[in-house]
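It would be a great kindness if you could assist me with a short task in structural biology. The full record is reproduced below for your convenience:
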Amino acid sequence: MAIIEHIKQQYSFLSPQEQKVALAVIQKGASIQRIGIDELAAELQVSNSTISRFVRKIGCQNFVDFKLQFSEGPQPTMTGVQGQVDHESQTSVEIYQFYQDVITKTQARIKQADLDQLVSWIKTSQQLFIYGLGSSGYTGAEFGQRLTRMGIQATVVTESHMMLMTSRIINKTDLVIGLSNSGNTEEVNQAVQNARENGAKTAAITSGTDSPLAAASDLTLFVEDSIGFASARFVNSQFALTYVIDILAMLLLEDEQYNWRMKQTVDTIMHHKLKK
C-alpha cells in the first residue's frame, strides 16, 4: 500500500509522539478507515492535535483526507513532509528534500552508456588527470583517493597554473576529467581544451549543459544544478558530483582486481589501527 510506504519514508522526520501514531497506522493498515480521530487518540494516549500534525506532515489536509489514502483505487501522489512542520524539524526536512531532489534529477540526466564509457577510459588510460578548483577541487581529491585505493594512479590537480602546465604535456594515451558544478570555471575549461587539442580523451562532470566545459569534453556526465540552493543555505554544492563519483567507483569495483586492491587497503589501515 503506497501510503504505508510513504509513512515509512517520512518516519525519521516525525516527533516521538508522531512516530507513535505512525507505528500504529502501519500496524492497522486499511482498518484505520473505521477509526475516528478521538478513538485513535484515546487508544494511543496522545492528543488529537498530535494526530492532526502527523497527517499534515505526511502531506494530507486532515484526518479524513488521510483515511481516504487507504481506500482502493488510484490515489493522489504524496509529496513528502509538508504543511505545518515543527520549527525544530523544518531545516532537516528542507535539506532532506533538497538532497532527494538532487539525486532524483541527476539520476534522470545521466546515461548508463556514458558511465560505462568513462569507466572504460579510466581503466585503459596511461595517465589520468583530474582537474577541479575550489569545492570541485576537494571533490576531485576525494575521487583521486578512491581511485588510488583501487590501484589506479590518478593525478589530481587543484592549482590553476599546474593545471594549465600539465594539460600541455598530455597526449593521446591519457585521460582528463574536469569537475565543475557550473562548467564555467575558466582555468578548468582551458586545461581540458588544451588536453583535447593534444589528442587526449576528455570527460566532464558538470551541471552546465551549454557550458564551455561540456563543449571541451568528448564525454559529459550531466548532474542537477544545485548551486543556487546550496549558496543560499550554505549546504554542500558538490552533492550531485559526489553522487556520480559514487556510481563510477562502484562500477570500477565490479572489476575483481580493483576490488581486491581496495580490500587490501582497508585491511592495511585496520591492521595499523589495531597495532596502536
In short: The longest strand covers residues 201-206. The first helix runs from residue 2 to 10. Residues 2-85 form a domain with the Arc Repressor Mutant, subunit A fold (CATH 1.10.10.10). The CA atoms of residues 78 and 244 lie 27 Å apart.
